[in-house]
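ENTRY TYPE: protein
CONTENTS: sequence, structure tokens:
***
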Amino acid sequence: MNTRYFLPAIQRPYVWSSDQVVTLIDSLMKGYPISSFMFWAVDDDLKRELKIYNFIENWKPEKQNPAASSDGRDVTLVLDGQQRITSLLIALRGTFSEKAKYKRRSSADAWTEKTLYLDLLQDPSGDYDEEGMDLGVSYGLRFHAVAPRNDYRRHWFRLGDMLNYPSEEQLENLIEETVAKLHHGVTAYERELISTTLGRLHRVIWTDEVINYYTETSHSVDRVLDIFVRANDGGTKLSKSDLMMSMITSKWQDGSARDMVFEFVDHINNGLGAENKITKDFVLKACLVLCDFDVKYNASNFNTQSITEIEQKWPTIKDAIERTFRFLKGLGISSQNLTSLNAVLPIAWYLFQTPGMTLRGSSEFERQNARAVQRWLINSLLMGVFAGASDRTIAVARTTLKEVSQVSRNFPEEQLYHSLAIGGRMTRLDERGVEDLLDLKYGKAKTFLALSLLYDDLDWGGTNYHVDHIIPRARAARRVLMGMNLPENRVQEITTSVDLLGNLQLLSAQENIEKGDLPFESWITSRSDVYRDRHLIEHSPDLWTAAMLPDFVRGRERLIRQRLLALTEPQLA
């Protein structure tokens, strides 16, 4: 170990206790299987890409595996077996630091380096001693800070000393020397026991083939990551993205990539005043997209060159993503209605190429482009453009953005509709799509998105908008309708209509409060023609009642249909 066999960056820290080390050695002494190991034979090209680490031999709290060099070496990486191999190294060549009772973990004198010893006078076929009883340990294995004193009851042998006696002849000499040093009170049976125990330890270390293993020879990092996830599913669960994060962190030069990415994810999710739910996977994928690398979220795309460039551009990548989500917040789009995170990536790329642009400015350029981005995003979300094979969709969108950026600073809304119509996919609302939207109901994620397309003049600059029932739900409650002596079929028709898109509008939080404070008749009759036109409410007072709700909804659906179909016409830049 540490000359040919090493650890990859995806491995976790060493976590075993001293009791687990003792149990492992006891199992080997008994001839028990200790499960198989999995190795990865790495070729010269992969050696240059992967960061490797030595095994720990002398364990202390918080100790990290030291980085190793692969220069001039054949390298085999351990995918499954790190804890067991490290424990073997500690037992035979190293030390295990244990904390003294009642000492603080942070105290310098709380930890003592200990070495593993074997009591040659303990009969493994007899009863367990008190310390080994709970562990089921038969051999007299103990960690000691200093060589323990020998007497007629115990004779200690430092386990690692057996590495100095590789041959049978050397073993016989060791047995003779040990027996000669025994206390005079040791019995003849115990002298034979010492010979047997030393012989068994010698076979475990030098003769027996106690390790079963499989060696993976694939050059595909992604295949190896998949194997690693499956091989380690019995312990702490790790996802492929966790392992990729570890690999990226190992190549990140300035600080910890893991800490930086996790802090940024927390900032976007909790620091912008909107409920977002981005993940580290989204951030890493965004890095590939914004830096113009292959968009596929594979370990092979996070090589040394790409990670170096991502690290250099990390401040501007963060800035573009944050501007994107601040813009979405202004549109009222959050995790509650953002049905595809991947649909956000083309917007982030566009903002990445235009530093400082917020899409929330007062200039005509920003206003028009903000509306274009909003229309495109909502169409994409409503039509499920980024569902399914989204990598291809993202790549096509980025190519379109790059091509248009050579000749224009405007967001290429129309060009994206055209280029993303892959295999006949619908990328914007058509007549059928509009009819589907009219079936949306209150509380659905897409309902807010559909309603937001109806308003060209809303102040999206951070104002919080609510989805509101124009004719209040309370007016269409079944008990209220029954009190109006309406027939059952009409009652059912009204209760079915109340939550439909045709009875929903967007109101600012303040407007919604004001509406709730007034009797509905007072509120609706006090609205101006401009207000009603804005919210597509027909000027037909006879329809502004719960009893006429189905007719009100049908009339408003006709106006919504006209407004949405108008958006299917190409927009002038």
Q: What stands out?
A: The CA atoms of residues 165 and 171 lie 6 Å apart. The longest strand covers residues 111-119. The chain has a mean pLDDT of 88. The two ends are 65 Å apart (CA to CA).
